[in-house]
Design brief:
The relative contact order is 0.07. It is built from eight helices and no strands. Helix content is 59%, strand content 0%. Helix 2 runs antiparallel to helix 3 and helix 3 crosses helix 4. It is mainly α. This is Transposable element Tcb1 transposase.
């Protein structure tokens, strides 16, 4: 499948594949041959090999990611506001906090605290026993007519 192969080229190299690339290139294989063997693009193989020759390591760099905009105290405050008032909105929390953060940050804090949106039921869920009783009530009154 050509589409599947094209998508695979854009995914990250696994640690095992990186080791294979370094091993084959060390053994003197051409970049095109290595790319065909591991089913990756020549560019990915070349980049992996260049990283190996430049840094002596083929592992992906792990970093802390984006810098945090909120402190731990502010994180707890976000969650506490949602617990105290379940109807509070993300924009209200953001305004109260006084820190320039996006609403997705607040949602992420809610998810980390295992908080979910609370929506009222449109109707109470009926058990099979409730359904049976309701049906009996309706059947008993099905022949009634309106008289004044």
């Amino acid at each position: 499948m050509p589409g599947k192969r094209a998508r695979r080229h854009f995914s990250q190299l696994r640690e095992f594949e990186r080791g294979l690339i370094v091993g084959m290139k060390t053994a003197g294989w051409l970049t095109r041959r290595v790319a065909g063997q591991v089913d990756r693009s020549e560019c990915a193989v070349r980049n992996c090999w260049e990283q190996w020759t430049r840094e002596g390591a083929h592992a992906r760099k792990t970093g802390p990611g984006a810098t945090r905009k909120t402190t731990r105290r502010e994180d707890r405050r976000i969650v506490r506001q949602a617990l105290v008032d379940p109807t509070v909105t993300r924009s209200t929390i953001r305004a109260d906090l006084g820190v320039a953060i996006v609403p997705q940050t607040i949602s992420r804090h809610f998810a980390e605290a295992n908080l979910k949106s609370k929506r009222p039921f449109r109707a109470l869920p009926l058990t099979p026993e409730h359904r049976q009783l309701r049906l009996q009530w309706c059947q008993a009154r099905s022949m009634w007519n309106v008289t004044y």
